[in-house]
Amino acid sequence: MIEMKDISVRYPGTHTDALSEISISFQQGEFVCILGKSGAGKSTFVRCFNGLQKLTHGEIYLKGNPVSPSNDEEWRTIRRKTGMIFQHFNLIPRLSVLQNVLTGMFGYRSSFKNLIGWFTTQEKELAKRVIADVGLAAMEHRRVENLSGGQKQRVGIARALVQQPEILIGDEPVASIDPGTAEHIFNMLQDIHRRLRLLTIINVHDIDLAKRYATRIVALKEGKVIFDGHPGDFTNEEYYATYQS
Ligand SMILES: Nc1ncnc2c1ncn2[C@@H]1O[C@H](COP(=O)(O)OP(=O)(O)OP(=O)(O)O)[C@@H](O)[C@H]1O
C-alpha cells in the first residue's frame, strides 16, 4: 500500500541523518508499532507518511504510484486520507467535543466554509457517529478542556476517524496517559483497526503494549531500521539492541 525507497531525512543545521536510507513497505490491514529510544527517529518517520516531514532523499510510492515531493496538492489529498493522533492531543480546549471532531473535516472543505464554521447535516451526523464509536456520545457538547487525558485522546481518535482515513498514524498517542487508560486506548485502536482494516502505525514507548497489540514491530535506532518482524520475534536480545547505547 505504501512503499518507502531509500528514504533519508536530515534536519537543517544538523550533521547526522534523523532517518538514514530506510527502505520498507506497509500493507493495508497491518497494525504496526514503531519502537526505539528517544531520538531514534520515530516521530520523524511517522511524519513522512503524510508529508508533514519532507524527505532529504528517497521516494515514497502509494499504491504503486510515486508521490512527487513537491506536489503539494497530491500531499494534501494524502493527508485527507491519513488520520493522525498526537501525544498532546492537539485539540482546541475551548471548543466542544463535536466542534473539535468537525475540524477533522477541514481538509475536505472550502476555506470559506471552514472560516464560518458551517457544516452540513451529513457532516454533523458522521461526526456524531464517530463520537459514539469512541464512547463519548453523552459528552458531545462538553468543552474539551473539561475532559480527562484519556477522553481527550478519544476525541483525537474521533477527529482522525471523521476523515474516513485509509491510514491511521499515532505519534506516541499514549505517552501522556496513565497505563490503565493507555490499555483502553489501545483496545479501542485495535477494535477500529479490525473493523475498518486501516493501516495503523503507532509510535510507542511501552514494549508490552506493542507486543500485545501489534501485528508487526519495527524498531529504529539512530535513524535506521534494526528490527522488522513479528512481535513474537522481538526477543530480549532485540530489546537490548534497540534500547542500549
Ligand atoms: N526540528 C528538528 N531540528 C533538528 N533536529 C531535529 C528536529 N526534530 C528532530 N530532530 C532530531 O532528529 C532525531 C530524531 O528525532 P525524533 O523526534 O524523530 O525521535 P523520536 O524517536 O521520535 O524521539 P522521542 O521518543 O524522544 O520523541 C533526533 O536526533 C532529534 O534531535
TrEMBL record:
CDD domains: ABC_PhnC_transporter. SUPFAM superfamilies: P-loop containing nucleoside triphosphate hydrolases (SSF52540). The keyword Cell wall biogenesis/degradation does not apply. It comes from the Bacteria. GO terms for molecular function: ATP binding. Keywords: ATP-binding, Cell membrane, Membrane, Nucleotide-binding, Phosphonate transport, Translocase, Transport. The keyword Transport applies. Residues 2-245 form the ABC transporter domain. Pfam families: ABC_tran (PF00005). PROSITE patterns: ABC_TRANSPORTER_1 (PS00211), ABC_TRANSPORTER_2 (PS50893). This is Phosphonate ABC transporter ATP-binding protein. It comes from Virgibacillus sediminis.
